[in-house]
Each structure stands twice: as structure tokens, then as C-alpha cells.
Task: structure prediction
Amino acid sequence: MIEIFVVSFLVALTGALSPGPLLTFTIYKSLKQKRGYLASIYILLGHATIELTLIIALLAGASFFFQNIIFLTLVGFIGGIFLVIYGIVAIRGVLKSDFETDFTFEENMVKGYKGNSFIGGILVSLSNPFWTFWWAVIGLSLMVNFNISFLKPVEMLLFFLGHELGDIVWYLPISIFIYYGGKSLNPKIYKYVLIGCGVFMIAFGIYLAFNIVFDPPTI
Result:
């Protein structure tokens, strides 16, 4: 079962490291909010709340399809392929970016919703179309591969906690770093971290795609 937690954590971490609306919102609140070093905690609580709701909805709404081996195999295979594609796109984006200049967090980068951090974590997540797509394809594929269901509450909890920890280990340090005056990241280090994430996503996507075909889930 520890495999579920570790893989869920690593896949979530690779996604969290990629720049996106939630990172932008976290930076803004860390800069502007009183006790901004805690901003990411409230934001991620909102983010986790909507993700747990979505996991439950996916398992409840797809209960009929989760008993169809053809559907499960297709979802697992397609999710793996999209993970490979996302890894390739992530690496291409990094290689095309100018990481030789200072990677700074300017205030014009962090405009948007300025209200409650918890509610913001929910709204920013819902407003990001990639987040919905990720869960509909890649997230569902992971649940299929690991046989996550209401009948296996421990596995479901490990999957959820691993996923949320992937967000925490990136967003919390960023929030603290920004609040206490750090306005820049080493561009070269960040570049190679993102490339490493892309390579991991490609490798794990290939594994998922082949694993679901040669070792389909039991129903």
C-alpha cells in the first residue's frame, strides 16, 4: 500500500512544480497577506477540499463504469499516454524559456482573486481547465491502476494524502520563502528540476500505459 502513497505523492509533486494559477495565487497571498507565510496552508486546505470532493464524485458517479474491464483498461492506457504527452510538453516549455535571466516574482505576475485564501484555493482550482482535465484523465487513470474504491478506504486515504503532500512540500516552502523577502529563485536549478519532473512523468506514463494493458485491474 505504501506504493500508492509514494506514487501519488511523486505524480502530484511534478504537477505542483509546474507554474500555474495556484502557484501564482499562493505567491500573491504570501506577498500581501498578514502572516503570509501561512497563506499556502489555507490555500491548500481549499484545494484539498475540492479535490477530495472530486475523488468522491468520480468514484460515486463512475461506479457502474468501474465494473467494466474495457473501460478501466482504456482509462488507464489513455491516462498514461496523456501523462507522457504532458511530460514532453513540460520539457519543451522549459527548453524554450529563457532561464538564463533572473526568475523573479513581480507583482504584475500575481493579479487575480484577492479574497479569502481558503475560498481562493477552491475557486482558483476550479477556474483552471487543466486541473479538471488532469483529474478526468490522469487522476482517474491512477485510481484505476491502484484499484481505488470506497471498498478500500485505506488505499483511498493513502492516495489522497500522498497527492496532497505533493502540493504541500512545494507550496509551503515557496510561501515562507516569498513572505520573508525572497523574491527570486535560482533559474538554473529550477530549470533542471522542471526537466527532471518532465522525464519522470514520461517514464511513469509509459509504465502506466503498459501496466494497465498487461496487468489489468481486477473487478
Remarks:
- Residues 84 and 202 are 4 Å apart (CA to CA).
